[in-house]
Structure formats: structure tokens, C-alpha cells
Known about the structure:
Blueprint: H1 17-23, H2 37-44, H3 46-56, E1 60-65, E2 71-76, E3 84-88, E4 92-93, H4 96-104, H5 112-123, E5 127-131, H6 133-141
Parallel strand pairs: 1-5
Antiparallel strand pairs: 1-2, 2-3, 3-4
Helix pairs in contact: 3-5
Amino acid sequence: MGKEKDENGTNDDPITGNEFHKLISCRNHMEPYGIDTFSLHTLFGKNLERATRIVDQKGVKKISAETSGRSIFQIIGESKRKEEYLCFPQHYCGCYSFFYDIVNRGEQLYCKHQLAARLAVSLGTCDDVKVSDEQLAQLLAKL
């Protein structure tokens, strides 16, 4: 897992997009692909299992603007309240854990919502929702 440049020519992510796609699969699909779940757990810790539950429950929505193609993910949390979090998978999540575990303490690479978004994209299981650019701007203004 090097710092190779991804398809966008960036390398600021500790795990490149291509490596992530090769490594990650949903809990029910890991072993047939020969994925070492111990290594994944070492990388992502407690958030990996939680992220796979979110993906299994179809809790990932990719919201894209029709004209610009810009997008953000909306992730439904696991709690009984089913809170929704806006998320940019590589850089930001609006959840408490992102700020506490990742930004402040640096203990995790990603929160469970970021991992869930990346898992769902890798597996092709996220719900794609198209909105106008104005609607996406209103959604982003809530951040």
C-alpha cells in the first residue's frame, strides 16, 4: 500500500483508490475474493464492521447534481434514530466520530460513514439520486 497516485493524479489518501477497491468488499463477500479480514480490521478497526452493516442495510445514497456532476454521500446511521450524515468519503463526514476520532485524536483513518460510502461505491450498491445543482447547493449549505 504505497502512496501511488490515483486516477485523479492525487496521493493525499493513505490508501489509494485502486488499492481500496481491491481490498474492500462487504462482510458477506470477503472470503470468496481472498480478502484477509484480519488485515482489513488492522487498517480500519471497529469502523469496518460497522460500515459493512450500513452497506448491508442499504444505508448509502450518492446524491449527484445533474448538470455539474458534483456529488456528496448521505449515510444513514445504525442507531435507532437513523440519523443521516453528509459525507465526502475521503475528506469529511458530519458525524461526531469524524471530529473526535479522526481530526482531534488521529486514531482512525476513516469514520464508519466514510468507509460505508467507499464500500458501497466499490460494490456498486449505493442508491444514486440525481438532483439539480441548486438542490445540491442547498444541501451543501447545511454543512
